[in-house]
Every structure is written in structure tokens, then in C-alpha cells.
Design brief:
It contains 26 helices and 17 strands. The protein is an alpha/beta fold. The strands form four sheets. It has a nine-stranded mixed β-sheet with strand order 3-2-1-4-5-7-6-8-11, sandwiched between helices. Strands 12, 15, 16 and 17 form a four-stranded antiparallel β-sheet that branches. Strand 9 and strand 10 form a beta hairpin. Helix 1 packs across helix 10, helix 3 runs parallel beside helix 14 and helix 11 crosses helix 13. The two termini are about 60 Å apart.
């Protein structure tokens, strides 16, 4: 595939000069699509011409063409051209080459409107004006992209490789549209693993959807793998894509496969769900890593505020990373569970942050809670680093299901596959590692069998839940109007402007107060003596500026309001504790949870801080999946003797080198 990709891309040598490097892809991609369509149509051109001549309506043409071109491996073509041109024939009239090619593309059936996304007419006229059209057309006319020479899967690889080159040359997020095939195959195998036997039955019909479809690579692999399991199965492929070029390629690819081209739709998935009223048997997605959603925040927030009717009702992540929004979307698109117990399954590629970002009560934590409490997470697989073309960060496959088998209900399997990658002979961008077939089979077997090992662990879903409690301690302050503290008041942004205040504080002398009420009573007298009047806010700012923590001081109590007389907490001593749900069993009621929290506090906190208490109004529930912690293996440091020996050896080598320099 790399050889074919390099040959296709070699037309860039022709473009060099009149075109900037960043512009190469805008020429190469549509010509590759055109040549592929041409090669697919070639054996059927006479039949197409006869059908076009015999039937005037598009639906009639489509029906008859599908019937006549249907094979065991393809549902039949549903597109055609009314033009007699091919690249080769258009080249025979070099003086009118641009007009001939424009006529050629204009002759395609209305469902093949992908060239508008490439602005192909403008591309052709620009090539012609820069005197490169003939060379480019001749180059592509000589490439064999027939299905016999290049399978659908290989064609998908070619498209994605070309897009990778295009993005790389334009310095425009190379690889963001390109999911490595080894990752896709593993994801598809894991999603199908629980259904493998059912998929072998005759008459199976399955829908497969990718909300970040790119060029359709995931759909291609999923489709081919399902047909490997059952050649008689019927699949319906669906996708949504925001980028016009990749959308056009995906749509053309689905047409070639005999799929309904209206099943791939353009648009930002986070803004508008183009399949709002549909759910699917299988959902696959690799959303772009670390993409912010500030530009679509208004739309996302509106859907979140709709509550249960919105995809994003469970919570919102920070605007810096949209990954968890895509996770919620994917979960929402799994088909509902039917009377037979069959539901939907999904697989999504994510970076590490959705596992743990955001504390208790935050949007990300709420999203994890929604996924776990609704028992949607079946497994999470950690991949080796350096698996992707545009990043070397840690990545994870989340496998979701809304109809888990009995032995998986209420549990989540974590699989550490970080040690199973194989080094590539040559890096491709940031990709230095791949999952070989034997490793993929081992991972899928581990998942399917739920076997427990050093790299496979199963947890109760609430093992990832916890409470964050707020531990308060009483406010104890002493008050003394020393020169230093009075100076702090004089420099205060608000208090420093109060006339006579510094002089009033000077009346205190060197007396040390261990009781706030006594200090405030005398403060009132001294302020009155100097004719100083303070607002309630200024008075509070003053005692905060003068006061210092003192364990020997009296406890301060709330001075006004509904909590008057209650112990006032010290914000500087405030702390939090995370209590796992499983600390005292898994409480099923609010009262049981309260008792668990009280028991934890008495056992783990009170012995160390006798005067502390829990502010139960601030207790929050959180969820995190500390994947790395569960697979951490302690490696003891080397003995000191070995370290000393190494140091002595290195010092000796340095001394020898210095002697050589001196001599």
C-alpha cells in the first residue's frame, strides 16, 4: 500500500512550482476519487449507457443498475454517468481537456455529488491555467485502481494515507483523520466479540455507525469483518463527518460498496446529530484527541440544559477537550434493548483524561457516573504508547454495551495491553508501535474469556465511585495590634483608605487577645474614640487582617444569621477526604451512605484531629477509573552497594579521561 500511495502522490513532482506544497492534496484527492470511480464503472459502461438510454427517471436507473451489477460481495452499483468520457478519452482532445473533464464529472448521477466538496471544477480550471492539467490527468489515467487490483479495504488505506500526507505537508494536524488499521481491527474485534456466534446465523442484518467517520476506514473494516463471519449478512453503513474532503471520500467509498450514499452526512456531530431519530447495532468512533469545543459551546450547552432529552444531559467536560462529549454521543446512539435482550454495542478510542479528569461533583465525574451507574461500560483496554500517527500519548479503547450478558452485568473489565506492541521497522509520524495479529488475538481472547491475570482485572462498577467529604476544624485566632499587623492594615486595598483607622488601632497597645468577641468589643470603643465608622464588610476584613491562627485561642463562633452561635470553620485548615464506596460495603440508601461516611470519619480522621467535623452540606459523589494505579507494580530501588559501585566506576572513567587531556 505504501508503494501505491507513493506512486499516486508522485504526481506532486508535476505540481511543484506552480503549486505550494500545502495545495497538493486539493488536486490529488479528487483525482484519486475520480479514477477509483472510473475503474469501478469500467466493466459496466456499456450497460450503464443502455440503462440511461432506456430509462429517464433516476429511481428506475438506480433500480435496474443495482440488479444488473449485484454480486455476492457487492449490493450493486447505484451511481452512473451520462457522459461518454473517461480520463483517457478526455486526454485525446488536449485543447478542450478542462471542459471535457468538467463535462465528465457533471454527468454523474445526482447521488454522486462529492466533487462539489472538492470544488473540483475550480481545481480543473486552475490546473489548466497553470499548464499542469494534461500531466496530472495522464498520471491518474495510468493508475489501476480497479477492485480486482485494489480492494475496498486497501482503497480505504490509500485514501487515509493520502490524507495523512496532505495534512502533513500542510502542517495541519497530520493524522487526525487517520486511525491506524491495527487499532481499528482490534476495536472491531472487541465490539464483535460477544456477538460472534450470533453473527454467524443466516439472515443477519446489522447497522454500523461512525459519528466521526473520516474517510470511512472504521466502517470498511467493520463491514468486511462481519462478512468474513457471515458472507450472507446484510450491513447498512452510516457516518457523519465535518470535514468536506473526507466526507466526499467516504460518500464515494460507500457508493462503490453499494451502500446508500444518503447514509453519510456532513456536519459537526456535536452541533447537530444528522441521525437524530436513529440508533444502531454497532457504533465505532475515534474522535480527534484534545480538540476544544469552545466554538460550539452555545449549541452543546443548550442540549445539556434540555435535560433527559439531550445527549449531553449527564454533564459537560471542560471546553478544552471534547472527548467525553463524543463518549456521551456514542452511548446515546446504541440501539435500544429489544424483547429478546439484544441491544447495541460500541467502541470508542479515547486518551487517558476521560478516566480521571475532574473531581467529585464536576462534569467529567458526572459523565463517568452516568456511564458506570447505567452499566454501559463493559471493558477498557490500555494500548501501548506511540500507536498513532499524530501523538505518542497513552490511549484507551472503551467497549460499551447496553445489554451486557449476565456474567458481565455490574462489572467492568480492565485490560492492560501496553506491553503487547511490536516496534515498527520505520516510524510513520509518531507511530512507532503496532498491534500484531497474534497480540490482537490475545487481547480479544482475554476480553472474551474474562480471565483474571496480571494484565486483566474485573471490578464492581461501584469500585470506581467515592465520596469527597469536607473536613472542617474550628477557627481559633489571636489578636494583637503589633506594628507589623497594623502595617498590613495600612497597605490593605480597602482598609488603607479609611481615615483614622491606623490611629485607632494604635490605642490597643501590646495587649494579646485570645477571644475574638473581646477584641471586637474593645475595637468598637477605640473606633468610636477616633470617630471611625466601618461597614460590616470592612469590620470583617479588619479582624481577618489582624487575626493569626493560634491553637491556644478560644474557638470563634458565627456572629449573626441563621447559624449564629455555631462553631465557625477555619478555611485555612479545611481539608477533603475521598471515601471509596466499598469502604464499608456498598450502601444502597442515603441513610446507609451517611452511616458509612460517619464510620470512616470516626475511624480514619477523628483520631488524628480531635476537634474536626464533617460539613455534610458539601459532600459530593465522584467517579474515577484509576487505570494505571490498578496495574502498578512496585520495583524496589537498586541496593546502595550497586549504586556506589557504578558511581565509583564513572568517577574513575572521568579521571582517566582528564589524565589523557592533561597529557
Amino acid at each position: 500500500m505504501s508503494v501505491l500511495s507513493s506512486f499516486v502522490w508522485s504526481v506532486a513532482d508535476t505540481l511543484r512550482g506552480p503549486y505550494q506544497e500545502a495545495e497538493y492534496g486539493s488536486v490529488i484527492l479528487p483525482f484519486t476519487v475520480l479514477r477509483r470511480l472510473e475503474c469501478v464503472m469500467e466493466p459496466h459502461r456499456e450497460m450503464m449507457a443502455e440503462i440511461v438510454k432506456s430509462y429517464s427517471g433516476e429511481q428506475q436507473r438506480r433500480t435496474h443498475l443495482k440488479i444488473k451489477t449485484r454480486t455476492a460481495d457487492n449490493a450493486g452499483l447505484s451511481f452512473w454517468t451520462t457522459s461518454d468520457y473517461t480520463l483517457e478519452r478526455a486526454l485525446q482532445d488536449p485543447e478542450n481537456l478542462a471542459e471535457n473533464l468538467i463535462d465528465y464529472v457533471a454527468g454523474f448521477s445526482s447521488n454522486l455529488d462529492v466533487f462539489k466538496s472538492f470544488d473540483f471544477e475550480n481545481v480543473l480550471r486552475t490546473l489548466d491555467s497553470r499548464e499542469r492539467l494534461s500531466q496530472v490527468a495522464n498520471h491518474f489515467a495510468g493508475i489501476d485502481l480497479s477492485p480486482q487490483s485494489v480492494s475496498n479495504a486497501d482503497m480505504g488505506d490509500l485514501f487515509e494515507n493520502l490524507i495523512y500526507r496532505f495534512a502533513e505537508s500542510a502542517n495541519d494536524g497530520a493524522g487526525q483523520f487517520y486511525t491506524p488499521r491495527d487499532v481499528v481491527r482490534l476495536l472491531v474485534d472487541l465490539v464483535y466479540a460477544e456477538d460472534t456466534e450470533a453473527l454467524r446465523d443466516r439472515g443477519q442484518v446489522r447497522s454500523i455507525y461512525d459519528p466521526t467517520v473520516g474517510t470511512g476506514g472504521m466502517l470498511t473494516v467493520a463491514d468486511e469483518h462481519l462478512h468474513d463471519l457471515n458472507s450472507s449478512a446484510t450491513t447498512a453503513l452510516f457516518g457523519q463527518e465535518v470535514n468536506p474532503r473526507t466526507y466526499a471520500i467516504c460518500k464515494a467509498d460507500l457508493l462503490i460498496k453499494g451502500q446508500d450514499p444518503t447514509n453519510v452526512r456532513q456536519g459537526d456531530t456535536l452541533v447537530v446529530d444528522r441521525f437524530k431519530d436513529r440508533k444502531f447495532d454497532y457504533v465505532l468512533s475515534n474522535p480527534p484527541f484534545g480538540t476544544d469545543w469552545k466554538a460550539v459551546a452555545s449549541d452543546v450547552n443548550k442540549e445539556h440544559e434540555r435535560g433527559g432529552q439531550g445527549r449531553f444531559a449527564p454533564g459537560l467536560p471542560g471546553t478544552g477537550d471534547a472527548a467525553m462529549l463524543f463518549l456521551l454521543h456514542v452511548a446515546s446512539k446504541m440501539r435500544d434493548v429489544d424483547d429478546t435482550g439484544r441491544g447495541g454495542r460500541a467502541g470508542i478510542v479515547l486518551n487517558g483524561s476521560p478516566l480521571f479528569n475532574g473531581g467529585a461533583g464536576s462534569g467529567p465525574s458526572a459523565i463517568r457516573g452516568y456511564m458506570l451507574e447505567n452499566d454501559l461500560v463493559e471493558a477498557i483496554v490500555a494500548l501501548p504508547n506511540d500507536m498513532f500517527y499524530n501523538t505518542g500519548i497513552a490511549t484507551y479503547l472503551w467497549i460499551l454495551s447496553n445489554a451486557k450478558p449476565t456474567d458481565r452485568k455490574g462489572v467492568v473489565q480492565l485490560i492492560d495491553a501496553t506491553g503487547l506492541g511490536s516496534k515498527l521497522p520505520k516510524s510513520i509520524g509518531s507511530k512507532r508501535v503496532e498491534i500484531a495479529e497474534k497480540d490482537r488475538e490475545a487481547i480479544v481472547q482475554t476480553f472474551a474469556s474474562r480471565e483474571l491475570s496480571a494484565t486483566s482485572k474485573v471490578f464492581e462498577k461501584r469500585d470506581f465511585a467515592y465520596w469527597t467529604i469536607t473536613v472542617e476544624r474550628p477557627l481559633r485566632l489571636n489578636f494583637e495590634c503589633t506594628a507589623e499587623r497594623i502595617s498590613d492594615v495600612a497597605e490593605h486595598k480597602t482598609l488603607g483608605n479609611v481615615s483614622g483607622l491606623v490611629e485607632a488601632l494604635g490605642l490597643f497597645g501590646e495587649r494579646l487577645y485570645l477571644n475574638r468577641e473581646e477584641f471586637l468589643r474593645d475595637l468598637g470603643k477605640h473606633l468610636g474614640d477616633k470617630g471611625v465608622r466601618l461597614t460590616a464588610a470592612e469590620r470583617k476584613a479588619l479582624w481577618q487582617a489582624i487575626g493569626r491562627h493560634d491553637d491556644a485561642a478560644d474557638i470563634c463562633c458565627v456572629q449573626s444569621g441563621k447559624n449564629k452561635g455555631q462553631i465557625e470553620p477555619d478555611p485555612a485548615l479545611r481539608d477533603t477526604e475521598d471515601i471509596p464506596f466499598g469502604w464499608g460495603g456498598y450502601p444502597k440508601t442515603h441513610d446507609a451512605a451517611e452511616k458509612t461516611i460517619d464510620a470512616y470519619f470516626e475511624a480514619e480522621v477523628k483520631p488524628h484531629v480531635f476537634d474536626a467535623w464533617v460539613d455534610k452540606t458539601k459532600t459530593k459523589t465522584g467517579y474515577e477509573i484509576p487505570f494505571t494505579r490498578h496495574f502498578y507494580e512496585y520495583v524496589p530501588p537498586r541496593p546502595l552497594e550497586q549504586i556506589d559501585a557504578d558511581l565509583n566506576r564513572v568517577v574513575g572513567e572521568i579521571l582517566e579521561m582528564l589524565k589523557e587531556v592533561e597529557s
